[in-house]
Amino acid sequence: MRTRYWSFCRLVVSPLLAACVTTPTTRATPVVPPVAPLVVVPTSTPLVIAHRGASGHRPEHTLEGYAIAVQMGADFIEPDLVSTKDGVLVARHENEIGGTTDVAGKFASRKTRKVVDGDTISGWFTEDFTLAELRTLRARERLAFRSHAYDGQFLIPTFDDVLALADSLTRATGRVVGVYPETKHPTYFRSIGLPIEVPMMHALRARGLDRANAPVFIQSFETGNLRTLAKQTRIRLIQLVSSASQVTPAALRDIATYAYGIGANTRQIVGGDSSAVPTSLIVDAHAAGLHVHAWTLRPEPVFLAKRYGGDPLAEVRELVRLGVDGLFGDYPDQVVQGLRK
Fold it and tell me: Which of 129, 167, 179, 292 is such that its CA lies 20 to 30 A from the CA of 158?
């Protein structure tokens, strides 16, 4: 199985990596020309969304991780978008990259302290580096209890790289591969003159993806930028929610005025205790006309709720029974397996 995934990854990703290395100071030039408009076919089976790629198998937000996730059966790959100093969008979960790259060993003197969305953070930040500088870095696993066998091997991809990969994967697999970008800290980046939305929409429009039926979702924890995007694009928007006040029936009806759906923490849908009674979140969201995508399924004991007795497939099955429309998972293969049982 491991050899098969690696062969697939080399076939699809290698040409894209070559383009990244040879043109480090510019936005990556798409290797594959834009494909004809693609439509996501409605299905009763929940979407499988590869959370930061196959992030349980490879360092998060790498082309290799995204490619393996699709081979495992993921419908969408999820790049979190932050900006470089020269305004290029790259895929990192946070703009602070000390824990996900080898930046500390290569740019030790660039460590600094910033206030981002009210939090004081020390480290290295993408907005302090040009794309050319970030291209010299390599990704590494963030969590100590996951494999570090692939540390130092993979580049930081740009959003253009991810879109080109999705095109290549669509051609290689014969099925639509969607992209599910998240705008990270959009207010902060706008405040420093590096808005996320402008280059993101430019990249999507360049590939003909500014359509209501495009295989794209745009997500954000912030509300203001989604309300603005709703006036500028037909792409489906997902409001990420994390508090009880955001999922009352009235709040959900308000979200439905600008968004296609919500991204909810699994614990907002059903508590972690074995005796917990599922909430009405999914029913209420559907009543408001919203789809529900649940985040994030992870099998490790530190993440998996005790109610599932160590069986991550039981969590998949319960969320499906409750009517969820999509599932974010670090291990897309396990989510797919759970959907089949």
Answer: 292
Query: What does each C-alpha distance from 285 to 136, 221, 241, 262 come to in angstroms?
Result: 44, 17, 12, 8
The rounded distance, in Å, linking the Cα atoms of 330 and 332 is: 6
User: If we measure between CA atoms, which residue out of 67, 98, 88, 103 comes closest to residue 25?
Assistant: 88
Mean pLDDT of 2-7: 55
Residue 174: both structure tokens together = 């014969």
**Count of positions (residues) in the chain:** 341
- Summarised one tens digit per residue, pLDDT across range 247-272 is 999 999 999 999 999 999 999 999 99
Cα 228 off chain centre by: 21
Q: Give Rg (Cα) of the chain.
A: 19
Gap between the Cα atoms of 110 and 87, Å rounded: 19
The whole-angstrom separation of Cα 304 and Cα 311 is 8
Return the residue matching tokens 């029913």: 283
Structure token pair of residue 114: 């910033």
Q: Return phi, psi of residue 247, to 5°.
A: -125, 25
Rounded to the nearest 10 degrees, how much is the dihedral formed by the CA atoms of 176, 20, 329, 124?
Answer: -150
Average of per-residue pLDDT across 70-84: 98
Give the Cα separation of 179 and 9 in Å (integer). Answer: 18
